[in-house]
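Request: Not sure, any thoughts?
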Amino acid sequence: MTYFGDPAVWLPWSFAALMGLSILIYVVLDGFDLGVGLLMPLADEAQKDRLVASIGPFWDANETWLVLAVGLLLVAFPPAHGMILTALYLPVFVMLIGLILRGVSFEMRAKAPPAQKRLWNAAFFAGSLMAALSQGFMLGLYIMGLTWSWPHVAFATLTALCLTVGYGFIGAAWLIWKTEGALQSRAIGWAKTTLWGLAAGILAISAATPFVSARIFDKWFSLPAMAYLSVLPLLSVFLVGFVWWQLRRLPLPKDRAAWQPFAAAIALFTLAFGGMAYSFYPYVVPEKITLYDAAAAPESLFIILIGTVFVLPAILGYTFLSYYIFRGKATALKYD
């Protein structure tokens, strides 16, 4: 399996890397717009419009990365797709209902009569909460090997709460960057509170992961891997401390450094994801099936890879273009 000249090795590895990249981008991009939705009840009515305006040009495109990740799982690792979605059927269903509710309420809150706007704001929050909690629950159950037992469900519930708070943090960091004035000041306060939920979630997952299996424990605590891996928690502690220090200074004149909490949030999510990827490799379903055993035939993967070479740059280009066009502070969201 270490010979990367063999298509049966490098093709599954390549698709696993592409799927992992898609999941990471989705968690960061849709994470901040889910986080903005979670913060809706904390804002006043005028600020709610600006919250929605800050994610208006991006939120639907962000979900493209979830579709891509699930599509890659289906076509590249069919047995793993069946095992994962079978075990996670209920939380996936809740997530999809939440995403649908978000999409409907996002449009209806701007077009419904003023008397109904509060109802659709509440629906937008509820959809965001359902999606965030279900994703966190799926993460926890995946780490526990996709088996339903009371201890595993309890851990999944903990990760659901922590990821939800973590989404709230990255949403607040996004608002610090994209808003100004009173709303930016409130976003700084929200970020100060939710930062510790994100830190607690990373700590909980990090503490539980090596005890999932003896194999992962050995990967973490054998030398020299232990020395290399120590960089991840050290960087994470540094980033949490840096963000806390920066939040206590903001806002600065001329809006300097407003982007830094969001950049640090991306770095924290990336470090946590990198640690998980290292821990579970080469398994696509923890301790049950490797990505090489679950992979489709090399001939099929090669054909799919050709299509991916064209599709992935298009998605990346569209994403970059949308963020470039709508750069700067959020303005009023209009539908006329």
